[in-house]
Amino acid sequence: MTSYAAAGVDIEAGDRAVELMKASVRRATRPEVVGGIGGFAGLFDASALAGYRRPLLATSTDGVGTKVALAQALDVHDTIGLDLVAMVVDDLVVCGAEPLFMTDYIACGKVVPERIAAIVSGIAQGCTLAGCALLGGETAEHPGLLHPDEYDVAGAATGVVEADGLLGAERIVAGDAVLAIASSGLHSNGYSLVRHVLLAESSGLTLDTHVDELGRTLGEELLEPTRIYARDCLELARTREVHAYSHITGGGLAANVARVVPDGLHVRIERSTWTPPPVFGLVGAVGPVERGELERTLNMGVGMVAVLPPGEVAAAVAFLAERGVAAWQAGEVVEQAGDGTAELVGDHA
What sequence ranges are listed for the domain PurM-like C-terminal (predicted)? Predict the structure, then answer.
């Protein structure tokens, strides 16, 4: 006689993983959540939206790419969930939407309850930082498709924004300032390039190598969680005049800013306004990777951009500094015929 367990799927391990993660999930909640973990669907009391004049629901979904390979190599699994939340919820924030709830999906070769619980603990922590509820999720065991120590994570989130508070290209005008908001490091994009360069045998580096210019091991630097901007950016938009945000993810700074620039306008970003953190220079030097390729792949030290009137810059910088987030004016919006575009000019400080 054969069995599901003989085929590689351990139902009891899945049940234990759920028990281990319950405490983390309970902490990542909101008053609108109905019921608890364990049902077939998560429930959220939509009557909370009755106070909106015209609520618009926003949704996004994402993963963390090949950064999961580093978590697996280092056997550190409680930070990758923070990356997942950041990649998902901060795509909602760019339109001014408050993230309400998130669900996750973990596919693995073998359910190791403690590992799954660690992943979910990071997701729950990220949801708490973002102010949204972790409403539910799924863990799927895929023996034969993934190796026992392999896994991947993905998630989706829903948010809400008042229709007349929607941020975006329609609000941007010539003369607006471009505010760069610092990243915490590489975030969760470009890791295929980063791993290819820094972990190549010819680099002489390993994840355990202490890199002086980084001030820590290479592994610690590469696993640094993505900064979650949700609460900072939403509160800034509530208290100051913000026209648009751009989340700097895959494609780099210029390409992501261009996504919120309307036709007839152009964003000029001055490299001289900041010095990218050392990890970006390390990737470029070890590669070697030319600057244009780095800028098309990595965030170069800027994880979010706000477009706002020039008279709001000083107050916005001070507001974010009080919350422990560095920001600076990096450019401006100018008139230019044709489709909306953005470019980086000059050299870094």
Answer: 174-338
